[in-house]
Amino acid sequence: MTDSDMTLLARRVDELVAPWAAPGTPGVAVAVVRDGEMVLHRCAGLASLELGVPVGPATTFRIASVSKQFTCAAAFLLAQEGRLDIAGEARRYLPELPDFGTPVTVGHLMHNVSGIRDMLDIMRQGGVDLGFPVTQGDLLAGICRQRGLNFAPGSRYLYSNSGFFLLGLIVERISGVALPALLERRIFAPLGMRRTRMSPSVWEPVPGLATGYLPTQAGWVRVAHAFPMGGEGGLVSCVEDLALWDRNFITHQVGGPALAEALERQIDFTGGGRCGYACGLRVYPHRGVRTVGHGGLWPGYKTEFLRAPDRGVTVICISNNGGSDPYHLAHDILDVILDGLPGVQAVPPLPARGTLAKLAGRWLDRDSGMTVDISLAATGLPMGNTHGVPFRLQPSADGRLEASRSGDDFWCALAPDGTLAVELDAGVRATYHRVAPGAVLPEGLAGTYANADMAATWTFADGANGMEVRVRGPVAADGGPWPAEPVEGDIFRIWVPGTLFKGWLDVRVLRAGGRVRGLHVTGNRARQLIYARRDGGG
Predict the structure, then answer these.
(1) Which of 165, 242, 405, 406 has the fewest beta carbons under 10 Å from its own?
(2) Adjacent-strand bridge partners of 89
(3) Rounded to whole angstroms, how far apart are CA atoms 152 and 96?
(4) How far apart are CA 64 and CA 295, in angstroms?
């Protein structure tokens, strides 16, 4: 980059970061890396609102799921030494895992194609959210209770924290070393990442760690979180250390060229098509440029680690404002660098507001029972929401709208017949119908239902504000109440309050002889569950 390019980049980044510099607000740290060298670093806002400590070069943050690539890297280092078979069954190393009737390999875990239900969703259906103290034993027990999968391994992609939690345990058992110590010895120390560490317990003091906050109508609150974190999200780091990690993709100091290649390697689904998730890294095109990156989300913290390796550019953004958007901040900064370069595509324009307005509403896939809400933000941007997880919709090159996020796959377009044509991961297509107003809850719903995989019992009864669900799970003796909301016919939602977001479960009543005998439940990352009726009602 020329001096004038750098001046322009610095000015534009300062403009983009300026909102974080407002008095009395949580902050952000940003870095731009060019060919392995950090060429720009900016900080704004406060690491501690209570103490008035600003975010600075020594500030660390919980980087959550950005940790996953490091867990994969540790696994590949063991594989290089012949100690771990990536293509081998995970049960070979964790014999307590259930036999799902089809092999789940270590590689399946790393590519998010295992089909194993997400442990956070497992705990949530038992009435436990991230602010409830649990142990790693509780999380492992929840995974090991499962007798079913979201899908056949290798056939589809669905993000699952369970896979990387299990991968961390596999690395520990093979190496005989605790994962935090192994990462420090094999990766952090050799690369000089002195402020990076795995901190499984949220209770232990961490030097320089920013406090995580969420915005409320009254101001800011410190965010409660109590889950232990391992290979799926336990790292604390800073932009300078992540820049050193990025440099390793060029210098190959740790792991050699084979490690970088393995982390970015994609696989094909068993039914055809390529999985966009590599190993702790998501590979996807942005304006015709291949990007490799990952986001991180934990109560009060958000991270985006975004690489455009073919262009020699990396953007790193970390914030202790849980309501912020480092994903789009990082992409906006990358756009400043890419604009005008050969081979970079223009950003497709959004459809007219009137066209977008036709998409607004609640939509239902009557086959699967899954729903999606689409709305227009005050800015005019279209927004999607599945299971309570909001995402921006942006125009794709083929004229559809696609989810602009680092998690799940979602494309949509309004069909000529007025339905919503949706494409998900692995090329799976579905037709969603607009939900009409005026629905009522299914008759005969009140009663008690249970699912052994979740070890959860749900009791439906009328409450002060309508039908509510009380939950008894393996950890929480009394969860809820969760409100129920009608959608269409025998399909309804259960709203599940949470630390990160207010989520919902899509539920279909199962009947026999007209009587309610069970519930078919699909959550964000724990799907196709049957809750059988335990009383004689319905």
Answers:
(1) 405
(2) 105
(3) 20
(4) 8
Rounded to two decimals, the pTM is: 0.97
Of 183, 159, 170, the C-alpha closest to 70 is: 183
For the chain, counts of helices (H) and of strands (E): 12, 29
At 307, is the secondary structure helix, strand, or coil? strand
CA distance 538 to 532: 12
pLDDT confidence of 407, banded at 50, 70, 90?
confident
What's the pLDDT score for residue 500?
85
User: pLDDT tens-digit profile of 153-195?
Assistant: 999 999 999 999 999 999 999 999 999 999 999 999 999 999 9
Sorted by sequence, the CB contacts under 8 Å of residue 131 that are 6+ apart come out as 224, 225, 226, 299, 499
Q: How many whole angstroms separate alpha carbon 331 and alpha carbon 29? A: 15
Is residue 406 scored above 70 in pLDDT?
no
Residue 134: closest CA among 49, 59, 46, 227:
227
Give, to the nearest 10 degrees, the angle between helix 326-338 and helix 3-17: 160
pLDDT in tens, 243-283: 999 999 999 999 999 999 999 999 999 999 999 999 999 99
What is residue 408's predicted lDDT score, i.e. its pLDDT?
A: 84
> Taking 90 as the threshold, does the pLDDT of residue 353 lie above it?
yes
Q: Which residues pair with 232 in a beta bridge?
A: none
DSSP state of 26: B
DSSP state of 224: P
φ and ψ at residue 35, rounded to 5 degrees: 50, 40
Give 419 or 476, the one with higher predicted confidence: 419
Element of type H or E holding 137 = helix 136-144
Structure tokens at 440: 């009522």
User: Mean pLDDT score of the chain, rounded to an integer?
Assistant: 96
Question: In sequence order, which residues have a C-beta less than 8 Å from that of residue 487 and are 6 or more positions away?
Answer: 362, 364, 371, 435, 439, 493, 506
Convert 463-514 into a string of H (helix), E (strand) and C (coil): ECCEEEEEEECCCCCCEEEEEEEEEECCEEEEEECCCCCCEEEEEEEEEECC
Round to whole Å and give the CA distance between 238 and 298: 15
* Side-by-side strand order, sheet with 61-62: 61-62, 235-237, 197-198
Q: What whole-number distance in Å separates Cα of residue 537 and Cα of residue 533?
A: 8
Q: Are 60 and 210 in contact (CB under 8 A)?
A: yes
- What pLDDT score was predicted for residue 2? 81
Full set of structural domains in the chain with CATH: 62-66+178-338 (3.40.710.10), 353-434 (2.40.128), 447-533 (2.40.128.50)
